[in-house]
Amino acid sequence: MTSLPTLLTDGSCAAVRLEARGLSMGYAHSQVIEHLDLLIPPGQVTAIVGPNGCGKSTLLAGLSRLHKPSAGAVLLDGKAIASLPSREVARRLALLPQDASAPDGLSVAELIRFGRQPHQSLLRQWSEQDQAIVDAALAAADLLELAERPLESMSGGQRQRAWIAMAIAQATPLLLLDEPTSALDLGHQIEVFELIRQLAAAGKTIVMVVHDLSSACRYADHLVAMHQGQIIAQGAPSDVVTAELVERLYGVRCVLLQDPLSATPIIAGIQRSTRPTEG
């Protein structure tokens, strides 16, 4: 991906405050999260980590108003997000879910144009600025040459970059990403994470669910570690990631090293723990 054009950040990076208070969520008769409190640091990259089934994606769905809580509330700039008009939420918060899908035959450029919908109205139709933002998002995601390609004809990594470009084109101060690099090879993973860092440097608030703990440590300012629906540690990665935390989260023993470039923790020497994991 190329450097982030100023067009994609101007006027869309005002400080935004997102928090959960006493949040409880689940599916059918299964409770996944109970009485959870969380404040997302504005203008930073927050990574949510933890084992499969711990509630990471459920929490992200609740923060984005995609999933209704059974108790508690999510507040956006101090107001209950459930009470805000949908268009207002969409102008302040963009979500890239893990299982994003699009109609057959949709081109890359057409998908990215959907990111501009919250900014359209009867009094404000498609403009040259909208098209410029779409073009800039295509360039940032290295997709200009593929703009007219149908999504279904592209590789998984290319499709993922198209979805990320759509979220960027929405031009919101807050961006929620559920495993944004899951379909990407190593090179494109790094490009996506570096783009996320550029967005944060421009003032955007980013929340992302990440499976790879070393990547989360390297690219996030704030780490939220979840286990069995609860937050068991949070803070700067270098402060909260310990061998004990890794064993509690994933049931493995490890050695923590320091990345010589970023000075963040690297997980090495992984072995299955002989200690029973909780739950």
Concise synopsis of the structure shown:
Residues 18-253 form the ABC transporter domain. This protein has helices spanning 56-63, 86-92, 108-113, 128-140, 156-169, 186-201, 213-219, 237-240, 243-250, and strands at residues 18-27, 30-40, 45-49, 71-76, 79-80, 93-96, 174-178, 205-209, 222-227, 230-235, 252-258, 265-272. It has 279 residues and is an alpha/beta fold.
Description:
With 279 residues, the chain is an alpha/beta fold. It contains 9 helices and 12 strands. The strands form 3 sheets. The protein has a 6-stranded mixed β-sheet, sandwiched between helices. A hairpin with a 2-residue loop joins strand 1 and strand 2. Helix 4 packs antiparallel against helix 5. The longest helix is centred in the last third of the chain and has 16 residues. The chain starts with 17 loop residues before the first strand and ends in a 7-residue tail after the last strand. The relative contact order is 0.17. The mean pLDDT is 87.
Break the fold down into its secondary structure elements and pairings.
Elements: E1 18-27, E2 30-40, E3 45-49, H1 56-63, E4 71-76, E5 79-80, H2 86-92, E6 93-96, H3 108-113, H4 128-140, H5 156-169, E7 174-178, H6 186-201, E8 205-209, H7 213-219, E9 222-227, E10 230-235, H8 237-240, H9 243-250, E11 252-258, E12 265-272
Parallel strand pairs: 3-8, 3-9, 6-7, 7-8
Antiparallel strand pairs: 1-2, 1-4, 4-5, 9-10, 11-12
Helix pairs in contact: 4-5
Domain ABC transporter: 18-253
Pfam families: ABC_tran
Protein name: Iron complex transport system ATP-binding protein
